[in-house]
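debug: dumping io for the single-chain case to check the tokenizer round-trip. Nothing else runs in this session.
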Amino acid sequence: MLVRLLYASRAAESIGADLIEEILVQSRAGNPEHGITGVLCVCQSGDVFMQAIEGGRNEVNRLYGNLLRDRRHRDVVLLDYEEILERRFAGWRMGCVDLAKVNVSTVLKYSERSQLDPFSTPGKVALALLEELIDTAAIVGRGDAQPRSL
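debug: decoded output
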């Protein structure tokens, strides 16, 4: 059974390119053996993550449990969880998007303000934004490609 989980969290320390790179490298190394795919968003405020992960129910729940205990994250909030028929992020071991580099009108389409606050955004709305980011090729790090610096 496939599931998709979407959560938001705040960084326990300031988000920099090194921290993002560390998270992406770790995810891209471990996710394939567990059948996990997904995308990590760094929100414009610079201290907020939003991440969608997909895979088998047991593996996704195990990973979410690990994220809850990860010292790099605080204020972890589950935004959406659902059984799915197919993966939407199958092409990414862990894609990444920096919302500060996305056209403001794209974010504003799904948000009350030009800066997305995933803690006050309905999960389905946040997923719709991710869908649009896929369609506009805003997500980097596809497949085995090396991540770009943020």
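debug: round-trip ok. The first strand starts at residue 2 and ends at 11.
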